[in-house]
Design a protein that fits this description.
single chain, alpha+beta
């Protein structure tokens, strides 16, 4: 490291310059020694000028060729540096070639293993930060990351009925069990491509991309029935209230979420254990318009809100 430290004082930002200096000195020191010998004891310089010029030209050509070859053979080092800089900036980079067996080849192989290991740890950390540990569903942060722009389709807002009483009467361990079982019922009710997240203490959000209003309400009703049939808190059956919002046009997630949450509050106000669909959607111009057709699970259709309630 002593030689490298000394060279680093001369060229602190370039490993290439360090290599070039060593190559230049290695090639030219013998030439300098020869010229010195001629000047000291071999007679006048003019008598040997043709030979010296020939040696000098040959040495310069050899130096240029050597420096170009060094630069070419150092390309793997440049590539390693470029790859690591890209990985540092973006968290992803193409793997380096793995067929070389010398020291540089082993360095590239270790760089590949390092990037893969760091990438796996970053992925695991991201999943942990965006996943609810109790239910295994996305959390609010994870849902926001998955849905970066406007969405078109249906959104369900689910709230477990009387969940506080479960915690108060049967303990938080039973409450955690109910949350886990409701999450399992949500997974069973969803279609491929749907997203589900735990949005709060006992609230869940389910996004149904591209779903028409009647499809969204059908999924919500199937989910409500599944929870009521499968989930219990001790001997108590568990029920949920679900608000539904759907749009055939692209809208911000926050808009659909607010509409579905309002419908869920309406479901609770009407007696819980039911599905309520938001029946009016704001237009881009700010005016309300009726939503498209809905499917009633139980009971007659209402002009503003339609509900499905178990008997």
């Amino acid at each position: 490291m002593r030689l490298y430290t000394w060279l680093n004082r001369l060229f602190p930002r370039s490993f290439t310059a360090k290599m070039f200096l060593l190559a230049f000195l290695g090639i030219h020191l013998p030439l300098i020694a020869l010229i010195g010998k001629v000047l000291i004891g071999a007679g006048p310089l003019s008598a040997h000028l043709d030979v010296l010029l020939l040696l000098l030209a040959a040495t310069l050509l050899g130096t240029v060729a050597t420096l170009l070859a060094l630069r070419a053979v150092m390309q793997p080092l440049y590539r390693i540096e470029t790859t690591l800089r890209l990985f540092e900036a973006e968290g992803v980079a193409p793997l380096l070639p793995g067929e070389f067996q010398d020291e540089v080849g082993r360095l590239m192989a270790r760089t590949n293993r390092l990037m893969l290991a760091v990438g796996q740890r970053l992925d695991a950390s991201t999943r942990a930060a965006e996943t609810d540990p109790l239910t295994g569903l996305l959390n609010r942060r994870g849902l926001a990351r998955q849905v970066m722009g406007p969405v078109r389709g249906g959104l369900l807002y689910l709230d477990i009925d009387h969940f506080k009483a479960v915690n108060d009467d049967l303990g938080h361990a039973m409450g955690d069990r109910v949350l886990h079982d409701v999450a399992e019922a949500i997974r069973a009710a969803l279609r491929q491509g749907d997203l589900s997240a735990r949005h709060g203490g006992e609230e869940f959000v389910i996004l149904l991309p591209g779903a028409a209003p009647d499809v969204a309400q059908s999924v919500a009703e199937r989910l409500r029935q599944g929870v009521h049939r499968q989930v219990q808190a001790g001997a108590r059956p568990v029920s949920v209230s679900i608000g539904v919002a759907a749009s055939a046009e692209e809208r911000p997630l926050a808009t659909l979420l607010a509409m579905a949450e309002a419908a869920c509050r309406q479901a609770k106000a009407e007696g819980r254990n039911r599905v309520v669909a938001q029946s009016r959607l704001p237009t881009p111009e700010g005016r309300d318009r009726p939503a498209s057709d809905r499917v009633e699970a139980d009971g007659p259709e209402r002009p503003q809100i339609r509900a499905a309630q178990t008997r």
